[in-house]
Structures are given as C-alpha cells and as structure tokens.
C-alpha cells in the first residue's frame, strides 16, 4: 500500500512540475511557449484522465468484490451539490467562450474551439464520476486506480493554476485600461485576453448584444471554474486515500444525520440580517467601483461592514469552542480521511487571506496608519486574521467530537446494561394501565404533530446544544455572504490602490491572485464544516 501511494504520488508530482514549467514559460517567455502549447499538453492529460475514468466505471468498479465498503463520511451532499453547481457553471463558461470566439471569427483561429469542447467533456464526465463513486473504497487494481486518481488530481491542479494565471492576465489588462484610459475603453478591451494570446489585443468586441452577453457571462462565471477544480481535487484525494481501505461494521456509522431547522431561532435571524446588509453593501460597491474613479466613501462603507461582522463571527466561534470544552464529549478518534482532509484544507486555504492581511498591515504601518481609510484597512486586516484562527479552532474541534446521537446511544446502551443487571421488570398492572391510557388518547392532527415535534426538539435540547446550533447556523450564513462578495467581483484589496502603490503593480497582483482564490475556497469549505458541526449537534 505504501509503495503504491508513493509511486502514484511521484507520478502526480512529475506531472504538476511539467505543467508548471509550461505555464511559467508561457508567462515569462510567451514567444517560445505559447498558450496553445499549454492547451495541447492539458488536452492530452484530459484525454488520458477520461480514458481512465471510463475504464474505472465500466471495468474496475464492476469486478466481483470491487466495492465492498463505502465511506459514509466522503462526498457529503453539500459537497456533491456544489460540484454539480460549479460544474454546470463551468460548462456554461466554456459555451460562452466558444460563442465569443465564433463572433471574432475574423481574427481568431477556430481551431481554438476544440479545447473548450474537450474541457466540457472533461468537466461533465468528472462531475458524473464523482457524484456516483466518491464514496468508493475500491478493493481491486489498487495501483492502477491510485495512479489514475493522482493523474486526475494533477490535471485539475494544473487547470486551476492556468485559470488563476489567466485571471491575473485579463484582470491586469482591465485594471491598466481602467486607470489609464477610462471606462469607455474598458468595454472595448477583451476579458479573454489571457486565454487567447497576444492576438486577442487586436480583436475588439463588436457593438452587438450577443458579444456583450458572451463577454459579461464569461466574466461572471469565471470564478466558479477555479472553484470546480479545487472541489474535484479534494474529492479525488479522499478516493485515493480510500483505495484498499476496509471499514469494519463496528466503525461504520449507520446513523444518517439530517439537516433540520428545528431548535434554532436567533442564528437564522442574525445570519439573514448579515446576508441582507451584505448584499446591499455589495451592490452599492459594485455600482460605485465600476465607475471611472471609485469613490472613497464606498471603500469606507465596505470595510466598515467587515469590521462590524468579523468581531461577531470571532465572538461566536470563541463561545462555541468554550461550549465544546464544557460538554466533555468523547473525541472521535477513528480513522477518517475525509475529516483529515477537511482540517488540512481549512488550515491551508486560510493562509491565503492571512498572508494578504499581513502584507496589508506592513504597507499601512509603513505609510500613513492615521488616515481614516488606512485605519479601517488596518483594523480589517487584524480582525480577519483573528476571525480565521477562531473559526478554524471551532470547526476543527467540532469535527473531532463524536456526534450527539451516537453519544446518546452509547450512554443509553450503558444505562440499559445497568438496568438489566440491577433493576426489576415493571409490574403487570402498571403495564396494563399504561397500554389502556395510550389507547384512549385521541389522535393528533398533522399540524399538532409538527408543532409538538418542534416544541419537543427545542425543549429537550440542552442549552449547550441550542447554543452550538445557533452559532453554527449564524456562521454558515455569514460565510456564505463573505463567499459571495469576492466571488462576484468585489476586490477592494486591489482597487483601493494602497498596497499596489507600496509593493508595485506586478508584485501585489501576484499576491492578490494567489490569496483571493484560496480565500474564496476557504469560505466555501467553511460552510461545509459548519454544516457538519450543526447537523451533529
């Protein structure tokens, strides 16, 4: 097993290094290595991955005793749902790209449309494959399966790197035109410049509705493409860890935790208020930021919203961590690759925003920290670091606690054993009286059953369980709005101009385009972890 994991890991490492060398050469020496060369390499990798996926679905998984066990923790419904959502948006993104290229048929090679078509096939096949097989613990053809999974992981990583690089290029073109030539020329600049090469600069978007729809649709859907590849990597890694894994019936959890809103009141109310205010702030920011010169007040409003929300989230996480400590629940020490990956992803993805915050702190302290906007950015950066740390501690602590239902059943089993030894059976008269009383009670209506069920759930939850559910739900909604704002284009860290002037245009842009995708992924992954904490409470 160790040898197979080592060999497949080395295969993925070599593929990633080869692809990274191509990408770096394209960026720094675009004459020798063009974007078409990178596309050809990635297309070859995609075809190899597709061949392995088809072989796995039609051959490996259908062999006798191939899938004896399924990991109940792998591929939760929220993760598979986000996979389908991001996959659908990524397919639509490539459709818009094809349409955009067709409109510019006079200055673009139509051979380029082959690459988006291959990517559509790759995205669709991979999404269907992960939806049906993400829980598999395959017991045959271990080495071939490990190598196939690692090759697919490496391909997704390279596609993510290419998406981030291309996003950097066309965002840089837009920002330079925005500063130098004004908004009217922005409409003529092509957002697809990074993916099309230098000849795209000669192509201007005709003044037609179709061209504007393809252009705006591409810009809107672009962030979902990067998220899709990251989600695929995480799910494929769990499959790779589960190759050859045997799960005993003692370790397998037969309890299916369902998401219910019963027992929570204040968390949804406060979270919904945060979401509604955040949407208003986001819309006002987008309206102002798309003008020729972003207004200073809109940055003050944006950072003020964060400065109010982040301390509330940090306080909620600290209180939740304290409640976890007071509960004294048993830790879940069973081997769980999904949980281990969740912890790694939370810690790793948080480094993106934390790193950007430290760069901002240094730039502000070294320039003019007493200015109003600079003071807000400084407070925002410090609070963001603290919020990431407290939220990670709360989520990781909650993921390592045994689910509440399992703990109750264990205690009941213990009490049942004690009663079996030390207690006497009930008297026959008492049992007869109870049965008569049950038969004489009138049946309840459906509305009364629902109301009594809600009251029963809320009243029988201890104050610790109620508090944990309220906190988790509140933080879920807060992370959703903090995911929406940067995903759909609110990037004040680049548009405020402070760090850009301090570090230089290219350096700060590299920092932002490394940290922002990780920050977006962190918020999305935090939602999944918090939902897990909520459900198990």
From TrEMBL:
Biased composition (Polar residues): 431-443
Record has Transferase as a keyword: no
A GO MF label: proton channel activity
Superkingdom of origin: Eukaryota
Membrane spanning residue stretches: 12-32, 38-58, 78-101, 143-163, 219-240, 261-285, 305-323, 343-366, 372-395, 471-490, 502-522
Residue segments, region Disordered: 416-447
Gene Ontology cellular component terms for the protein in this record: plasma membrane
Record keywords, A-Z: Cell membrane, Hydrogen ion transport, Ion channel, Ion transport, Membrane, Transmembrane, Transmembrane helix, Transport
Keyword hit for Transmembrane helix: yes
Family: Belongs to the otopetrin family.
Record protein name field: Otopetrin-3
Source organism (scientific name): Tinamus guttatus (White-throated tinamou)
